[in-house]
User: Which sequence fits this backbone?
């Protein structure tokens, strides 16, 4: 099971990231969710060239009034959110997330998140043929970590691989 990062009690109430989700599913995500007994057609759909979580009434298919039905087994993209890959900026914290500024000061979590995002993107390349400019990725990741350490928070020497 993956490490939980960027978790706050507020996140479990906010659920903004679960509304009109565009979350891309990796083959490992699909298999993990299938192993819980869900049929792929129930939770995934092919949209814009990627398998993505389905929305029902504008909400992630797994979102209930009590929270995420598969929280412990949720997709990798959900685990690392609000860290996302912007094609122009590289890794960023999604400004749509109300806690992005809070998470921007958690350098160690950012480091772990960047490693997980790299794994996500590598699988995206393998499965979907999506091409990543890895120099751009590393430049953006370093920028994100420099901003974090500018807050005076200690960080380890970081390697992206």
Assistant:
């Amino acid at each position: 099971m993956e490490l939980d990062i960027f978790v706050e009690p507020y996140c479990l109430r906010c659920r903004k990231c679960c509304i009109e989700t565009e979350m891309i599913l990796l083959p490992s995500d699909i298999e993990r969710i299938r192993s819980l007994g869900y049929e792929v057609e129930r939770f995934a759909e092919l949209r814009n060239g990627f398998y993505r979580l389905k929305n029902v009434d504008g909400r992630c298919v797994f979102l209930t009034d009590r929270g995420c039905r598969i929280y412990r087994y949720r997709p990798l993209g959900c685990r690392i959110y609000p860290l996302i890959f912007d094609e122009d900026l590289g890794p960023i914290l999604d400004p749509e997330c109300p806690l992005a500024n809070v998470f921007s000061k958690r350098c160690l979590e950012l480091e772990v998140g960047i490693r997980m995002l790299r794994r996500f993107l590598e699988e995206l390349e393998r499965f979907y043929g999506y091409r990543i400019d890895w120099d751009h990725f590393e430049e953006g990741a370093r920028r994100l970590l420099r901003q974090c350490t500018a807050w005076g928070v200690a960080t380890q020497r970081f390697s992206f691989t």
